[in-house]
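Morning. Coffee machine broken again, so started the prediction first thing and wrote up yesterday's gels while waiting. Chain of 136 residues, entered below exactly as on the submission form.
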Amino acid sequence: MWQDEDVLDTWFSSWLWPISVFDGIRHPENMDINYYYPTSVLVTAPDIIFFWVARMIMAGWEYRKQIPFKDVYFTGMVRDKQGRKMSKSLVIRRTAGVDPHDGADAVRVGMLLCSPAGNDLLFDENLIEQGRNFSN
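Came back before lunch.
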C-alpha cells in the first residue's frame, strides 16, 4: 500500500474551498468569485473551528484580502449515548443496529422531533421508533 504524493490533506485543501470553488485562485477577478465571495453566513458544527473555519479566514485574508463570511452559526452535533461524536467510523448502523438506507425517513423524523436548537442531540434507538410511528 502506498500514499499518492500528489494529493493535499483534506483539511489543508478544504481551507481554500470558498475561493477555489469559484476558481478564485487562477482567475481572482472572475464574475462568480466577485458575486459570491464573501458570503454572509457559514453554518457548521463547533468541532472544526480550528481545522476549517479559522483556516478559511486565513486563506481569505491571504488571497482575497477579505474574510469569506461575516457570521458563523454553530449547530449541535449528533452524539451516541456515551457522548461520542457520530462520524463515518461510528455510523448509526453500528451504534443503533439500523441501516440508514432502510430507515432513513424514520431516522430523520425521529431526530428532527427531538433536536434541541443549537445543542447536541444524543442519538437513541427510540428516536427511530418514534420517527417511524410518526411517519406511519
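The chain has seven helices and four strands. Going to sketch it on the whiteboard this afternoon.
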